Structures are given as C-alpha cells and as structure tokens.
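Example 3.2
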Amino acid sequence: MDKFYHSVRLDQDLCMGCINCIKRCPTQAIRVRNKKAQINSKFCIDCGECIRVCPHHAKHAVYDKLEVLKQYEYTVALPPPSLYSQFNHLDDINIVLNALLRMGFDDIYEVSAAAELVSEATREYLSTHPDHMPVISTACPSVVRLIRVRFPNLIPNLLPLNPPVEIAAILALRKAMERTGLKREQIGIIFISPCPSKVTYARSPLGITHSEVDKVLAVKDIYPNLLACMKTVGEDPDEIGTSGKIGVSWGRSGGEASGLFTEDYLAADGIENVIRVLEDMEDKKFTNLKFVELNACNGGCVGGVLNVENPYVAEVKLKRLRKYMPVARTHMMPDTEAFIGWDSKVQYEPVFHLGETMMESFQRLNQVEELLKKFPGLDCGSCGAPSCKALAEDIVRGEAKDSDCVYFLRDNVHKLTEEVTRLAEDFEKEDADSGKRMKAMTSCIQRISQEMNQLDQKEGRNPYDSKEIDGK
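Structure, written as tokens:
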C-alpha cells in the first residue's frame, strides 16, 4: 500500500535487538524479530526518532553526497534557516551564503526567503477560509504523513500550500534557467537538509506530484567544508541574503506562527507532543485557534538529526541572529500565486486497518480484545512489539504468535507443571512405574519454571532478553 520512498534505513549488522527504537517510534513501525529490528515501511513517517534514540547507530538516513555537484553544469544551493544556527558567533547570514558559493555552488536561494512568501500566503488563506479553522501547518513532512495515516479526520485542516523548500526550488530553477539558458536537466537544485523527513519529501512529496529539488545534502556532511570556507570570507561579505526575521524564524518552533501576526495559534514540537495535540484536535478541544504549527523534531528544524548543534543552543543562536534583521525582505508577486498552492490532495492511507473490509476489521478487532485479556498489559516490549496491543494486532495479522509474550509463555509453563503434577499423581495410583516416569518429567518442568522465575530476580540485566532465555 505504501508507495513512498523512505530515507530512514536500518543497518542490521549494527542492530543489537534492543527495544529503544520500538518504544519511541510514534507510529509503532518497528518490531524486533529474531534479535534484529525491522521497520515496517507502511507505518514509517521518516521522523528520524529511531535515529535519535538508537544507542548502536543502527538507524541512519540516506541522502546525497557533496560529489553530486559534479553531475550538473549549474548548481543552486537551498540553505534552510536552521543552517544559520549551527555556527558560533555568527552575526551575518551573508557569511554563510558566500561560503556556500566558495564551496562550489553557482548560486544561492534561501529557503527562509521562500518562507516569507508562504507566511504571506498563509495570512491570506486564514482570512479567506474561516471554515477550516484551526489550520494545520504543512511545513513538516513527517507531520503531514502522520495525519495521513493516523488522523484522517484532520486532513481537511491541512494548509494546502507548498512548504518553503518547494517554493525556493521552483523560484531558484526559474532564476537559473533565465540567467544561464541551460536546459532543466543541466541545472541541479540542491537542498541542505536538517532532517531525513525532508529528504523523503524531495523523493516523494505530498500535495504536489513532483518536487523540483534534485538532490539533498545533510547539514552535518557539509558542515566541516562550509566552516572552513566561512573562515576565508572577509569581514565585509557580499550582500546575498534576501530574507528577514519572519523567514529566519522558521528554523525554530513557533517561528512560522509568529509570522502570521495573530495570537490565536498553538506551536508544538517533538513528535510525542505533536501526537498529543492532534488527539486533542480530533476531540474538538481547541475552539478559538486559527493556526496550529507542529514540528516533529524537538525545538523545530534546529532539532533535526542531520544537524550538528544542540537544538536548544541552536534556538538561542537563531533568536540572537534575527534580532537586528528587518521584518521581511521577500514579498508575493502575481506570478508566485500560480505555484504556491498544492496541485494534488493528500489522501488517507488506512495502513493501520486490521482487515481488507470493514467486517474483517471488526472480526479481527474482537480477536485483538480477546488476546489482550490474556496478556499482562505491561507494554514491556520484551516480545519485540512496543505494546501488548501491538503484539495482539501482529498476531491477528499473522506476523507474530502469543508465545512471543514472555509472561504468557511463563504462565503456560507454570500451568503445564501443575497439570503434569496432577497427571503424575493419577498415574502413581494406577501404576508405580508410570508414576516414577511422570515424576521425573514433572521435576524437569519444575526446574524450567524455577529457572524462569530466577531470571526475574537477576540484577543488572533484562530478565526477558531473548538471548539470555535461549542461553539457559
């Protein structure tokens, strides 16, 4: 069912089968099977949370390398506003922009400049569509994908405007073709991404059939080279920047909403907080809001896993940098309106349905409820699923079995011991030899039960780790 490219990947050679990722994945897309993690691509929204929490670095993002500049005759860099927050003592964004040119790019188009256009278009949309309140920002691709698969009732609330990176790519391409006269395939529009979510967007965009972004580099990859080039830029760099406070503010949580000149907004960052807000929106708890800004990463785009700076330090740097900037320097033109809006709708993807039909889904839901009565409800993750409910759903889908639950397995061993004991007593009354054999069998099963209980009392290790149980 899932037709999207995914930038978040798993290196099974590095995976140790721990459960850190399954407990933090917002869509429960990860399972641990046969001592290795597995990512279900249908559920994954490429938020990068598993990359952030994996202690073994088994999760990583796939993106392009700097060598892609050689594939094009003319290249345009699209720096995000969060890029400016990665450097110490930066007081002029033109230093970064000039350094990008020295790195080998032929031109620059700031994503923050395009963000000011989106802010202006959003203000217009809010004034002309009062029936769609509150409007949900579509700047974070992971949030849009989350709504697409988990909160279908909120799809009509999505802001039907292209994100700043797409607007920047379209305008940068138009400018490059006019300036050089080159063909489209000779020009490379290259975005410098702070997160895997935007890498995925460039390959499989939502709301638009095709993205004009050709390649995506990671901030952490270009950072060393860019830092070296910045040191060669003089104290009076060429004036390249075309954005102001509104555009640069998009790099942190609340920055997009602050450019709408309204106090009737909500801004939340961090995927768990985002989910909580969306659940409250479904329950109609927000009645006076006009706009909801949601960012999957903590702190906003400054918290992307492809950045190098601590997100909270980066947020402070961005606030300090924008302090003496003009409010805005880029404004809507008549021809901009033609491509600022979506050209296709975001469709609900029922990836979490248990069956192909409604009747089958209801039947399997009843099976899930029956299974949950057997499970302890601890959501320990020892089975390889993030919760007891997730395991039950895997079982009815045919992807797991009830014995994967260690508690369920242990209780069955105890019950088997008791049954064999009673059976042995019955045989002993009838046949002395049979009774001896059954006693031996009972003794063996009792030892197994005792050893499983002893695992609970061991200190300094997980008593339900599959390796330890196998080792016994």
